């Protein structure tokens, strides 16, 4: 391999683009399934980016809320690194062209979302933050001459020589296979929401990068920890559901049951802004009992400017949130688990790195705090890119290259069957019997496609963790948070 071989970044979301831009003093090869920001889960993000920017706020307070939401399963050092780096991350995004929303006095407008004890969320274009950040990152990457992008390819194998990852193989849109050699490979391939019957992710966010690294022997962590967003738009028969951003509840919207009664009353001191795992379980129970709705009619004339994405999604499905409550349901949203990494994105395999949702450095614990995901992608993506740019290039020669792939994919009917299994066994509420049943069915499905093998590993991790922890809630362990008396 040439000493000038590029750093290969697989994935064009916020983490991948941040890593590529930071690494760009070195040659970078960016491999994506689609051009521009198309198809990236980051583009769909409606929530903003959390940072201690307000008067009296501190990174320590942000860190405290992160650990409380994560059920103190977090790696405290990673959390402190994330929250201390947040203000600089916002400044960098502004420098590359992200126009964050401001108040009448020209100051950054700070919103509040679930699990935060105060307003500290910046948005761009109301509920279009992910799209706004992605536009700026894509433009910056296109302007960087050291980044070469190849779109329309699906990476499906890793090349190893003497135990070190030295490249990838991808299937191009025209069906051809192409090999790419690199001095390092960064996986920024997103999450696993596509394995569930309802998700806020793109349908192809199926854990392919995670499964690929696992097949090569990379260490994993907390695979059972899956966050469900409490308020996806309830559209019958639809797999990838539009989000109904948590910022609406930060602006005063209320969750209601089928009788129009407040859903979160007496459940948690923060009410509708309780951590997502608690709200998701409550909403899931209400859906089983007849439905759940979010009443945001009080937003009134501000709807088109403050929440244009939600308004458009609702109107597209004949729901006018200015006049009626919005039907909502939980949906698989974010994977706290993934490839075990350190602060610099290194996995257990030499030459293989990971950033964003596919990685797990412990920053989110057992339940991600709202608006920490885009922040994680920027902070740890940039940190990884800077580390790779400064690292000496490793020349490898001799020895045979071993190609490790994740195998064939499930057929559409088999994938749908798997999604149903995961929805029953790995949803917001779990128990040992359902997990065991799903494991047995996955054993049979695993021979048909790699997605079932990944699901089987996730199910086994959930079965092994017998006690509830954050988003991993078992109803054969302890009761949901005890009711509290309103102050």
Describe the 3D structure.
The chain is α/β, with parallel strands linked by helices and 487 residues long. The strands form 5 sheets. A 5-stranded parallel beta sheet has the order 6-2-1-10-17, with helices on both faces. Mean pLDDT is 92; it is low at 479-487. The longest helix has 20 residues, at 76-95. The protein has helices at 14-23, 41-44, 59-69, 76-95, 129-143, 208-215, 247-250, 276-288, 303-306, 308-316, 373-390, 412-425, 432-445, 450-464; strands at residues 7-10, 28-32, 49-50, 110-111, 121-122, 147-151, 153-161, 164-172, 177-181, 184-187, 220-221, 226-233, 254-256, 292-295, 326-335, 338-340, 352-354, 359-360, 402-405. It has 3 domains: 7-224 and 336-402, FAD/NAD(P)-binding domain, CATH 3.50.50.60; 230-330, Flavocytochrome C3, Chain A, domain 1 (Alpha-Beta Complex), CATH 3.90.700; 407-464, no CATH class.
Shape: globular
List segments where confidence is low: pLDDT < 50 over at least 5 consecutive residues: 479-487
> What's the assembly state of these chains?
single chain
**Would you count the extended β strands for me?**
19
CATH architecture of the largest domain: 3-Layer(bba) Sandwich
Fraction of residues in H or I helices: 25-40%
Biggest pleated sheet = 5 strands, parallel
Any key phrases for this structure?
single chain, 487 residues, alpha/beta, FAD/NAD(P)-binding domain, Flavocytochrome C3, Chain A, domain 1, four-stranded antiparallel beta sheet, 33% helix, disordered C terminus
